[in-house]
Amino acid sequence: MKKILLFSFMLLSALVTESWAQERTISGKVTSAEDGSTMPGVNVVLKGTTNGTITDVDGNYKLSVPSEGGILTFSFVGLTTEEVEIGTQSVIDLAMSADVKQLSEVVVTGVAGETDKRKLGFSVGTVGADVIENAPGVNAATALQGKIAGVTITQPNGAPGSDAAINLRSAVTLMGSQSPLIIIDGILTQGDGNLRDINSEDIASIEVVKGAAAASMYGSRAANGVVNIITKKGAEKAGSTSVSIRNEFGQSFMGRQMPLATHHPYEMSATDPTVVDYSQISPGQIADNEYSVVNDLQSETFNPGQFMTNTISIGSTFEKTRMFASFSNSLQSGVVPLSTGYDRQNVRLNLDHEISDKFSLRMTSMYSESENDNIPQGSGSPFYTLLFLPPDVDLHSKNEEDGSNYNYDVGEPASLERNPLYTIANVDRTTKRNRFLGGYTLEYRPIDALKIEGSYTLDRTNNQYEQFIAKGYLSDDFSGVANGNIRRTFNTTRYETLSGKMTFNKEFGDFNVIGQGYVLQEKSIGSYTAVEANDFIFRGVRSFSNTGLDPDSGLNRTTSDSEDIEEITQNFYLIAKVDYQGKLIVDGLFRQDKSSLFGADNRSNLFYRASLAYRLTEDFDIPQVQELKVRGSYGTAGNRPTFVARYETYDNGVKENVGNELLKSPVSTEIEVGLDAEFLNMFNLNFSYSTTNTVDPLWNKDLASIAGGFKQQWQNLDAEVKGDVLELTLGAKIIDKNDLTVSSNLIFSKVTQKIIRFDNAPFLYGPSNAFILQEGSNLGVIYGEKFARSIDELSISQQEADTYVINSDGYVVRTSEIGTVDEKAIIVQDETGNTKFEIGDIVPDFNLGLNFTVNYKGIRLYALFDWKQGGDIYNQTKQWTMRELRHADVDQSGKPQAEKKPVNYYANFYNVNATTDYFIEDGGFLKFRELALSYNLPQSILDPLKIFKAVKIGIVGRNLLTFTKYTGYDPEVASTGDANGDFGDQYFGFDGFGYPNFRTLSGSIEFKF
């Protein structure tokens, strides 16, 4: 590798030798063509080089250029890029006009330096600060919801401080993570790389590279795509300093409720007719008996919570220095009572400084500190236990055992579940987290055509989790927890990179040539420690030494666990791009990754890309078409195995996984074709079609007993996953007048994903093993039993065994059982006796987002709608409430007597928690996702005050309305992983008592100085 790099750098140096020449100085002033005002902050660059400057506060610039001249390029966001031939001129003044083209924005992700979006051979989605700042979220990932085609953002649960799942295009893995690589200001982030630590109001733009072809520059970490966060760097105008203070306050509310029964099937007490006798079920077993009291426990429990964000930022831009600093505080208490929720503070400092004509320094840094009052998810969460309690209970009654608040066994004997308020009040579950991101780059420009950069980045995270249960806690588990419990875990990761980059950029006649070589060294160190103790001696003492002795060992009842990992990776890539007259652009890339996570026999993994773009409107004058480009790309990217997949693992001395010397990166190969257009001076269109094939996916395979006692081994499975994705983005400037502008943006995507080869027996996986992997099936299929709705669905042997009829619910039942306490739906089986079939698919038919922005005399209205069509959800929440006879389906009140069904009828649907099609529901929805209405105070009010440059007041709504057929709390729900944790952060359309997403309504005020 070193020889290749040395040769490449020598070649680049040889190419630029001719660029050494005597220089002269060009100066001038840039003004606005609209009103003649001076234009500070305009980029002035000698075309084909990295030699450039920016205009000062008066619009003036000065630049050294070769004696033979060249071409100056003038560019500024929102203005038409201008090119001027220098010739013999020493002074060049320029008036710049507004740019009506939308595709002329610059991107930096997946390319060798800043690149005009019109000159890309692949698609890169972008979201700017103007959109993000409409409704900035606590989690920066929400800034992508409904805004970029092919991007799916799922909030697996709405718990404050929880991270959002980001999926780009189709899934490319069977086991392991489906999350994209997250880059923040050039810092490659480690592991989850989550965005919940980032202050949304610091973000200048987000760039999303969705496919393997575009992401091949990032090699074995990029098969799932790349999300690049670019934060703010300075003031909007050169030669100025700006200060901004923004405050937002509001509340969060539950959006929907689970439908629960208000009637029961039991007899009333013989001694007190207002009390239900849960030991005696009524003869007809029909749940139509009234409770004497029906409390709305969900409304009583889930209260509005506080939402608050405060941010102060300072930006400065001068001739040689740009600086941005900010501090923010966020608080989100959620909707669960007695919980403080999520509290986070952020500090950021970004600094760019031009040391001299040859050297410049870039620095970015962020520190985040947060504390989260964790609410349990799934079984044991308040969204689980509350649903099982009968509606006649008083959650706020005292405990008869000790007089404490929130009677913990208030539901007995109707339910075995306990009062969730007692658990929340008496069990502390707190996560404290801090994170530091730092990136430092020194840039050297020995000649105009050559730029050399050296960078160091650091992503360091510390997590500390503590669970504490005091002695005397009322519990059914008297063996330990009732006498007190404390558990602390410490998790630290430190991910460092050291890189060198050389970029050559020069024009040769009609050709602009860019070459880049890049070397990257990665090092990741992680440690995990857990300590747990039970059986306290004294009340109220939170200490590991406050434990009794084990009578057998004579030692304290304390256990511990620890883990340390270290990963090292060496990478390099070479990229070349040739631009012919700005209309025909060819790009090629080669990358090699070597990682300790790859087996010793497959240490080197290779990736590559080729792309082509042709701008037809540079050659042909097409009426009413301002820009038309066709493009295509072909490339590969991969995913690295995890540490536990590569090496031998043990659990308390028991052999678990054996290492694999042959392990390598799975490879995703993508072909993408597309079309980008601007037409009628009003519309811009982006269309992409991509097909991706992933081979050698990672798989934790069961081993034969002869494998030295190890149970499993991670291997590259002989399998292939295919994803096809159709994406469309249409933007429109509907009205553009002096006082009124109206714009809109529509995105559309359709995904299909299929397992076309699977060298393994059909495999059940995911939450409750409700999903299947098998050759020929779509990836995301739900597998289980189904109840017959037509007699023709029954096998011949079933039909011959009995006679059947369709009941009032539309299910096939035995003729002899209809109308009796034994009535139940019939499970379909085939002629071999099999009762398991594909019963659902979590992949939606399509996703569509639509937003509108209206500006009128200082008033700004922004609205975002998010539509997901289809995509099934397995509603286990409904299934388990049916087990407890608490779901509304069990309630027979109001039905005609002939149509009432006994409780055993619904117990049959529950089917001892087996996966059945009764609980498959359409997860499609239409969401009013975001609403922002703001008003900028007119300058006629502000100018006399001589304090503020601008004042903006507004209201912000998030997740306001949901229209859906789904009967659970929220159709935007998902569960992750499986019992073994092999599936990482893959998310499944499975509702398992998670914290539902809630709506937020708040007011905001912003001051600029």
Give the helix/strand layout.
Layout: H1 2-16, E1 23-32, E2 43-46, E3 52-54, E4 60-66, E5 71-75, E6 82-85, E7 94-96, E8 106-107, E9 115-116, E10 125-128, H2 129-132, E11 151-154, E12 165-168, E13 181-184, E14 187-188, E15 203-209, H3 212-215, E16 226-231, E17 240-253, E18 263-264, E19 266-268, E20 276-281, E21 289-290, H4 297-301, E22 305-317, E23 321-332, E24 342-354, E25 359-373, H5 382-388, H6 420-426, E26 427-447, E27 450-469, E28 485-508, E29 511-534, E30 558-580, E31 584-595, E32 604-615, E33 625-638, H7 643-646, E34 650-651, E35 654-655, E36 657-658, E37 667-679, E38 683-695, E39 698-702, E40 712-716, E41 719-736, E42 740-758, E43 763-765, E44 771-773, E45 781-784, H8 796-801, E46 804-806, E47 812-814, E48 837-841, E49 846-856, E50 859-869, E51 872-875, H9 876-883, H10 903-910, E52 920-922, E53 925-936, H11 939-942, E54 950-964, E55 975-976, E56 987-988, E57 990-991, E58 999-1008
Parallel strand pairs: 1-7, 13-16, 36-40, 51-57
Antiparallel strand pairs: 1-4, 2-3, 2-5, 5-6, 8-9, 10-15, 11-12, 13-14, 15-16, 17-22, 17-58, 18-21, 19-20, 22-23, 23-24, 24-25, 25-26, 26-27, 27-28, 28-29, 29-30, 30-31, 31-32, 32-33, 33-37, 34-35, 37-38, 38-41, 39-40, 41-42, 42-49, 43-44, 45-48, 46-47, 49-50, 50-53, 51-52, 53-54, 54-58, 55-56
